[in-house]
Design a protein that fits this description.
The longest helix has 72 residues, at 169-240. The chain is elongated. With 729 residues, the protein is of the alpha/beta class.
Length: 729
């Protein structure tokens, strides 16, 4: 019987086996006896006595402590059996799903009694694809397959072993133990490598973060240094720039530093030549009306103080700002000054003042021209009537001729005033619009954001207009600039189109400007957010703007509107909130057909006819009646355009010709003519005006007016116009 000591050692043995490493083995063989053999060899066979023998046999020698410890570290195998490839694959998939992989796969190459069947080799290839770390042992009773072929089909060779059947049980167990140990070591090494990789990655990340912080610190220091250098350079450039004349002087007024602009202002050859010169003496030398020392003695500084210097025979206007730099005790350290030459702005201001005076004169002249010409018309009209009835070479004839001569001089004087008041930068002449638009778009491209696409379409068959190129260029800059500004955040498309106009277009000029075909349309369209409907009625108001402070003056569209109006054109806005805005500019084409004058015979022979003469001035109506009746015409007169229209409606076919003044209350001459032509389209009409800019021959021709004459009306001019019109019938 075994002793108590021996029994305690056996218990320790059993406890030790609980901590042994267990390995799972997949055995696949078509022979059930081989599967049993694999299980017995790996799970049950042992060189040590069994526990049952130790309990009931006195002759069995129990293992020593060392043997027990050695036995404890030996691996224990769990064998899972399969007899077909399908069962083997199923067992493999279940093991991977449970996270309990096989260490070794014992696979018969043939898995069949047929020698040419290689199902086991195919199974090994599938299992290898499922678990690259699995140790595979291929077994075969007949070795007729080359090892090279086996290694090719079930790579890699270092995880593949071939065993010839029959084999000895200890050999199989030793092979299994060696492969399990190898598999375990490789797994541990792989885990260590992964752990090491994680640690290296973490450490590398820390080092990279430290490097980034270091580079950030270095870049910040470099940025601060660059900013400091840029600031020094910027202020040095600002000091030396020719915008203002800058200087710095010591407490005694000796110039320490200055720029080129300062040297040029005070006739120094260079800034270095000015160093050491006393600024107070320089100030007095150029003839300033006040002493700089006295100006600084009060508050210690000057701010935008305007002074006038003499520069040779010219006067130079300067704007001076000067500061006194004090120390902690209040003593003067330096004087620093900035002098801006405003001579050119002063000159422009004077020009503007002159232009405003001319504009006021033009307004005055335009306002009084009508009335003054009416007065002259009465004087010259009656003078002509008296002259025609006076005895030649008589005193009355001489006196009335002097009256006529004085009246004509007054008429010429009015014409001169009107012409003089219109002088200015506007110089309208015949030009082609397409080249100017293309040039303006080239200049705009550099200032338009890159996310705004510019498309130009020149579709007009004839683009000749009478225009001022500078002002047309101003129209392009304002309209395109506003469109680009509206799209600068989101981007979009700026489309500029030049096209002919027809009556079928959606947008056409008003009827009173003439036929649509005589206009050229310039369209600027954008795909921005459009204009807020709440402010749409104010966009052309001067100084109204939706831009932020400093981004716009509110004069752009007002200026465009004024330019278009001065060119006898028309401006239309199409607003699509959320989709953009479109501006249509209509400009009159340059007509090559001018006013055709018919040579009037020296002896005018008039046939009888009935003429409607309309003017709001009673004396002019009386003179017109006498002039026309003296030539044989029957004359119907009216002093109201409304009454004249009613008279014409009553007997429209009784009149052969209509003569009307342009400037009349209630209805202008052109409006009256338009209504008359609706009643009788082909009747000849003569328009009289005292201000030539109020009408143009193209507009009159489009309306249907045959001719116009300038006031004051002279009999010769009136008869010539009547002859031109009646000669066409």
């Amino acid at each position: 019987m075994a002793s108590i000591r021996d029994l305690s050692q056996l218990g320790r043995y059993d406890l030790a086996t609980e901590n042994t490493t267990r390995f799972r083995v997949l055995a696949v063989d078509h022979d059930e006896s081989m599967l049993t053999l694999y299980r017995d060899v790996l799970c049950y066979e042992s060189e040590e006595p069994s526990a049952l023998e130790a309990l009931f046999s006195d002759d069995v020698q129990l293992p020593s402590r060392e043997e027990i410890d050695a036995e404890a570290i030996k691996p224990v195998f769990d064998v899972e059996q399969a007899s077909t490839p399908r069962e083997g694959l199923t067992a493999m998939m279940h093991a991977q799903e449970r996270g309990e992989p096989f260490t070794i796969a014992l696979i018969d190459i043939h898995l069949s009694v047929e020698e040419d069947c290689l199902a086991g080799l195919d199974l090994a290839a599938h299992i290898r694809a499922m678990d690259p770390n699995l140790e595979i042992v291929l077994l075969s009773a007949k070795h007729h397959i080359p090892l090279k072929e086996i290694n090719r089909r079930v790579p890699p060779p270092e995880k593949l072993l071939f065993v010839q059947k029959p084999f000895r049980s200890p050999e199989l167990k030793q092979i299994a133990m060696s492969l399990c140990s190898k598999w375990d070591v490789e797994n541990r090494l792989r885990d260590l490598n992964e752990t090491l990789a994680v640690k290296v990655e973490a450490r590398t990340s820390e080092l990279n973060a430290a490097n980034r912080r270091l580079r950030l610190d270095i870049s910040k220091r470099a940025a601060v240094l660059r900013q400091l250098q840029a600031s020094e350079k910027r202020y040095r450039l600002l000091f030396e720039k020719d915008i203002t004349g800058n200087f710095a002087a010591d407490s005694d007024g000796l110039i320490l530093d200055c720029n080129v602009a300062f040297a040029d202002l005070f006739d120094f050859t260079s800034p270095q030549d000015a160093h050491g010169t006393n600024i107070f003496n320089v100030w007095e030398r150029v003839g300033a009306s006040e002493s700089l020392r006295d100006l600084l003695a009060g508050l210690g500084r000057l701010s935008n103080h305007e002074v006038v210097f003499r520069h040779g025979v010219l006067r130079r206007h300067l704007l001076v700002s000067c500061d006194t730099v004090l120390d902690a005790e209040g003593n003067t350290l330096e004087y620093r000054g900035y002098i801006f030459d405003i001579s050119e702005p002063k000159r422009l201001e004077e020009q503007l003042r002159q232009s405003q005076k001319m504009e006021a004169l033009g307004t005055l002249a335009g306002g009084i021209a009508h009335d003054f010409n009416n007065i002259l018309g009465v004087i010259l009209g009656y003078a002509e009537i008296i002259e025609s009835s006076a005895e030649p070479e008589s005193g009355l004839d001489r006196r009335i001729k002097e009256v006529s001569r004085a009246g004509r001089r007054a008429r010429d004087l009015v014409t001169q005033i009107l012409n003089f008041s219109r002088q200015g930068p506007q110089e309208r002449h015949a030009m082609m619009l397409a080249p100017l638009i293309k040039e303006a778009l080239k200049l705009l491209r550099s200032s338009v954001p890159t996310n705004v696409e510019i498309i130009s379409r020149m579709e007009a068959a004839q683009d000749n207009v009478m225009a001022d190129p500078t002002q047309i260029h101003q129209i392009m800059l304002n309209l395109c600039g506003n469109a680009a500004f509206a799209m600068q955040g989101t981007g979009g498309t700026l489309t500029v189109t030049m096209a002919d106009v027809s009556g079928a277009d959606e947008v056409v000029p008003p009827e009173d400007l003439g036929k649509p075909e005589r206009f050229l349309r310039l369209t600027v369209a954008d795909t921005g957010p459009g204009i807020d409907p709440a402010v749409i009625d104010r966009v052309f108001d001067p100084f109204f703007t939706t831009k932020k402070q400093g981004e716009g003056t509110g004069m752009g569209l007002a200026m465009v509107h004024g330019i278009v109006k001065r060119h006898d054109g028309y401006l239309e806005l199409e607003n699509r909130p959320g989709h953009g805005a479109t501006f249509h500019v209509f400009l009159p084409k340059n007509s090559e057909i001018g006013r055709t004058d018919v040579d009037t015979p020296a002896d005018l022979v008039f046939r009888e006819g009935r003429i409607l003469f309309v003017d709001d001035e009673k004396p002019l109506v009386d003179i017109g009646r006498e002039m026309l009746e003296s030539c044989g015409f029957e004359v119907v007169t009216r002093t109201s355009s409304i009454e004249a229209l009613e008279a014409f409606k009553y007997k429209a076919n009784d009149f052969d010709l209509v003569i009307t003044d342009q400037t009349m209350p209630n209805m202008t001459g052109m409006e009256f003519a338009r209504e008359v032509l609706k009643l009788r389209p082909n009747i000849p009409i003569i328009l009289c005006t005292g201000f030539s800019d109020a009408v143009s021959y193209d507009r009159l021709r489009d309306v249907g007016i045959g001719d116009f004459i300038m006031k004051p009306i002279l009999k010769h001019d009136l008869m010539a116009a009547i002859s031109r019109l009646l000669a066409k019938e």
